[in-house]
From TrEMBL, chain A:
Family: Belongs to the CRISPR-associated endonuclease Cas1 family.
Biological role stated in the UniProt entry: CRISPR (clustered regularly interspaced short palindromic repeat), is an adaptive immune system that provides protection against mobile genetic elements (viruses, transposable elements and conjugative plasmids). CRISPR clusters contain spacers, sequences complementary to antecedent mobile elements, and target invading nucleic acids. CRISPR clusters are transcribed and processed into CRISPR RNA (crRNA). Acts as a dsDNA endonuclease. Involved in the integration of spacer DNA into the CRISPR cassette.
Organism taxonomic ancestry: Bacteria, Bacillati, Bacillota, Bacilli, Lactobacillales
Gene3D superfamilies from the UniProt entry: CRISPR-associated endonuclease Cas1, C-terminal domain, CRISPR-associated endonuclease Cas1, N-terminal domain
Pfam families: Cas_Cas1 (PF01867)
Protein's organism: Enterococcus saccharolyticus subsp. saccharolyticus ATCC 43076
Keyword vocabulary terms for this entry: Antiviral defense, DNA-binding, Endonuclease, Hydrolase, Magnesium, Manganese, Metal-binding, Nuclease
Full protein name: CRISPR-associated endonuclease Cas1
Automatic annotation (TrEMBL), chain B:
Pfam family, any one: Cas_Cas4
Cofactor binding mode and count: Mg(2+) or Mn(2+) required for ssDNA cleavage activity.
Record-annotated DUF83 domain positions: 4-161
A GO term, aspect molecular function: iron-sulfur cluster binding
Name the UniProt record assigns to this protein: CRISPR-associated exonuclease Cas4
GO biological process terms held by the UniProt record: defense response to virus
InterPro entries, sorted: CRISPR-assoc_prot_Cas4, Dna2/Cas4_DUF83, PDDEXK-like_dom_sf
Enzyme class: hydrolase
Lineage, opening ranks: Bacteria, Bacillati, Bacillota, Bacilli, Lactobacillales
Length: 330, 162
């Protein structure tokens, strides 16, 4: 089966015959077999040539780049080869028509908030008192269907997250001063973890969108003018509670990650290299984990659920079957 | 509309698959069986000149002296659709004035082959099939799923049933 490659060492990335070879300054190398590769993540300082990029492109392998601090800087997104003009037209139609756009955006928030709700309920059932938050979340979710426009929807989403984040201090057993989400730069351990893992989910979604026929720049919840592959943000929204938040809870509660994994002088913004690797390993294991899909009656990995999400969206756009976002059912 | 051999083949397998394929919603590329098919094609009959594309429409696996058309298949499932695919090639080339005698379905893995001929009756039926393919393709929406036993092995399965 195909794999994601996460490269931490620095060096040269080059095409060598029919593999991509990463050569470290000391001459040691790692070969990446191209047929077995889904995408490549670069965390080190790498130099490469166009020959390598062309090779990745012909083999349709996206590459995601991260800077020294582990922040996502961008992706090498190979030329689209599998384009459906018809689908693109429908994708645009559903964006420009506010009513139709809102239908999809609502479903995304509806599913994302359901998955959030399930996270809170899970910890409530495990003896953390989250009764009030559960009630609040329930009430807020009822407002989603009544939202009249995207701004209003975003407002509800903001409120949901506010309530959600008050749960975190209760769920997480380590003492961390986490009140609200702060980005660029994050200001404490949890915010740094969220930022790091969110960017990973974002890139995973992007890789899955790439193999679907969807255009990654046209999104419904997020504004398409964001100069990003914003459809990836849309789809990531649904999976973040399951892939990011759950993982953070478990990493912190099992003490896999603690203060010593951060550079404290950086105000906890900076995850040490070995911590990044630990998280990536956990993240990748989570993605490869499979569940039995009810409709398909097949074992499907968490990662593949993202692909199915693209399919469902395509079917909605093609007027085939109304989109129903992924809601955790186990 | 350019009608390809694949479209004829899909017409007999599933109209929904045909519609999606025509609208460039194709899932073949990532599917294991399709990749195996490609490898089979690369590794069999390597002495022949292969993949003869005509009019950017029909892509014939290989030809013997412009008289016999060969189509390579992995297995005999969906044999009827493969037969019609070959009949279409015969008819297409004959219309171009090429004196094609017959077609052959090759199953290198099974070490078997099957001869395909095209009679007048079948020629007539092909006309109807082509019209029907146009009709299906021009539909606004994709035809419904068919839910047959072969769906499970289809590259479109996850798309159709997710």
């Amino acid at each position: 089966m195909v794999e994601s490659y996460y490269l931490f060492s620095s060096g040269e990335l080059k095409r060598k015959d029919n593999v991509v070879r990463m050569t470290a300054p000391d001459g040691r190398f790692k070969d990446i077999k191209i047929e077995m590769t889904r995408d490549i993540y670069l965390f080190g300082e790498t130099s490469m040539n166009t020959k390598c990029l062309n090779f990745l492109s012909t083999n349709k392998i996206p590459m995601h780049l991260f800077n020294y601090y582990g922040y996502y800087t961008g992706s090498f997104y190979p030329k689209e080869v599998n384009i459906s003009g018809n689908l693109l037209i429908r994708q645009v139609e559903h964006y420009t028509d506010e009513t139709r756009r809102l239908i999809i955006a609502k479903e995304i928030i509806y599913s994302a908030s359901y998955n959030i709700y399930r996270n809170v309920r899970y910890y409530h059932q495990r003896g953390k008192d989250l009764e009030t938050q559960l009630d609040q979340l329930k009430a807020l979710r009822k407002l989603i269907s009544r939202a009249k426009n995207i701004q209003e929807l975003m407002g509800i989403e903001g409120n949901i997250h506010q309530v959600y984040y008050t749960c975190w201090a209760i769920v997480v057993n380590q003492k961390i001063d986490f009140q609200k989400r702060v980005k660029r730069p994050p200001d404490n351990m949890i915010n740094t973890l969220i930022s790091f893992l969110n960017s990973l989910v974002y890139t995973s979604c992007l890789s899955e969108i790439y193999v679907s026929q969807l255009n990654p720049t046209i999104s419904y919840l997020h504004s398409a003018s964001d100069r990003r592959f914003s459809l990836s943000l849309d789809i990531a929204e649904i999976f973040k509670p399951i892939l990011v938040d759950r993982l953070i809870f478990s990493l912190l509660n099992k003490k896999v990650i603690s203060e010593s994994d951060f550079d404290t002088e950086s105000n906890f913004c900076y995850l040490k290299k070995n911590a990044q690797q630990k998280i990536l390993k956990a993240y990748n294991e989570r993605l490869e984990k499979t569940i039995k899909h009810r409709e398909l009656k097949r074992h499907i990995s968490y990662r593949h659920l993202m692909r199915l999400e693209c399919y469902k969206l395509i079917k909605h756009l093609m007027n085939d079957k109304n989109y129903e976002g992924f809601k955790i059912w186990w | 509309m350019k009608i390809t051999g694949t479209m004829i083949n899909y017409y007999f397998v599933c109209h929904r698959k045909l519609w999606l394929h025509v609208h460039r919603l194709s899932f073949e590329e990532q599917h294991e069986n399709v990749q195996l098919g490609k490898l089979l094609d690369q590794s069999s009959y390597t002495r022949e000149k292969k993949q003869i594309m005509i009019d950017e429409t029909v892509n014939i696996d290989f030809l013997q002296d412009w008289k016999i058309i060969h189509e390579v298949k992995k297995s005999k499932s969906m044999e009827e659709s493969a037969e019609w695919q070959v009949r279409y090639y015969i008819s297409y080339l004959r219309k171009k004035g090429i004196a094609v005698e017959r077609g052959i379905l090759d199953y290198p893995l099974l070490k078997k082959r099957k001869e395909i001929l095209l009679n007048d009756e079948e020629e007539e039926k092909l006309k109807d099939i082509l019209l029907d393919i146009e009709y299906i393709s021009n539909q606004e929406n994709a035809p419904a799923t068919i839910n047959k036993k072969w769906c499970k092995k289809c590259a479109f399965y996850e798309y159709c049933f997710s």
